[in-house]
């Protein structure tokens, strides 16, 4: 009987190769996560007193230098990935907090509280250690604000639109840059904003909404 199955689908070598690639992709993802988690822990322990080496990170991850450089060209590239990972986690946390509120005003307050929660002692110490390991404080500071502001500002689009914003994306971007800036300031000063400051920042964000028709 003539084989009607196309060669590329009938070729066992191709199928095995595809399974191998799928397993390799899963293995590589696991390696990256182990490196990120190990780096975060090593940097947290060292604080801003010492910068861990790549060797320290791969040892904590139980991996090799080859595994490290398979995924990251340098330690700075790993730090950038840590900052991006942290921004994504923060965004998910803030979104969860906002989901507890039915009103747009309540969502904005929850947003402010969620962002500023990063200044709490344990979280702040880890974040500062990661920023400090980025090399230049100025460059890391700027990158961290950009990485955190973009996804966080998107969370304000809907409540700002409900509040009558003529341009929710722009208003949310301005509010996010200002709030993340204050968060960063508190991180470097190693203190936390009080309830009065949370109220003031929330009021500022609400006033940032540009009414339609202007």
Commentary on this structure:
- This protein has helices spanning 7-10, 12-46, 54-61, 65-71, 75-98, 104-116, 121-132, 137-154, 157-162, 168-189, 195-207.
- By secondary structure, the protein is mostly helical.
- Helix 2 (12-46) crosses helix 7 (121-132), helix 5 (75-98) packs parallel to helix 8 (137-154) and helix 8 (137-154) packs across helix 10.
- The radius of gyration is 22 Å and the shape is globular.
- The termini are far apart.
Helix-strand layout with pairing:
Layout lengths: L6 H4 L1 H35 L7 H8 L3 H7 L3 H24 L5 H13 L4 H12 L4 H18 L2 H6 L5 H22 L5 H13 L7
Helix pairs in contact: 2-3, 2-5, 2-7, 5-6, 5-8, 6-11, 8-10
Mean pLDDT: 85
Output the structural class. Answer: mainly alpha
Strand content: under 5%
Provide the succession of SSEs: HHHHHHHHHHH
* Total of helices: 11
Residue share in helix: over 70%
Q: What is the CATH architecture annotation of the largest domain?
A: Orthogonal Bundle
């Amino acid at each position: 009987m003539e084989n009607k199955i196309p060669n590329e689908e009938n070729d066992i070598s191709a199928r095995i190769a595809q399974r191998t690639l799928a397993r390799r992709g899963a293995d590589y993802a696991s390696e990256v996560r182990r490196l990120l988690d190990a780096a975060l822990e090593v940097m947290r322990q060292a604080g801003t007193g010492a910068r861990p080496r790549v060797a320290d990170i791969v040892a904590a991850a139980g991996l090799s230098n080859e595994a490290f450089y398979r995924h990251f060209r340098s330690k700075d590239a790993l730090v950038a990935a840590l900052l991006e990972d942290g921004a994504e986690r923060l965004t998910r946390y803030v979104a969860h907090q906002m989901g507890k509120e039915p009103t747009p005003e309540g969502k904005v307050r929850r947003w402010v509280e969620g962002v500023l929660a990063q200044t709490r002692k344990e979280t702040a110490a880890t974040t500062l250690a990661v920023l400090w390991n980025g090399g230049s404080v100025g460059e890391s500071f700027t990158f961290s604000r950009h990485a955190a502001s973009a996804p966080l500002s998107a969370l304000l689009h809907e409540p700002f639109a409900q509040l009558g914003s003529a341009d929710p994306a722009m208003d949310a971007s301005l509010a996010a840059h200002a709030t993340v800036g204050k968060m960063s300031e508190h991180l470097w000063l190693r203190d936390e904003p009080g309830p009065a400051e949370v109220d003031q920042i929330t009021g500022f964000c609400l006033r940032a909404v540009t009414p339609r028709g202007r």
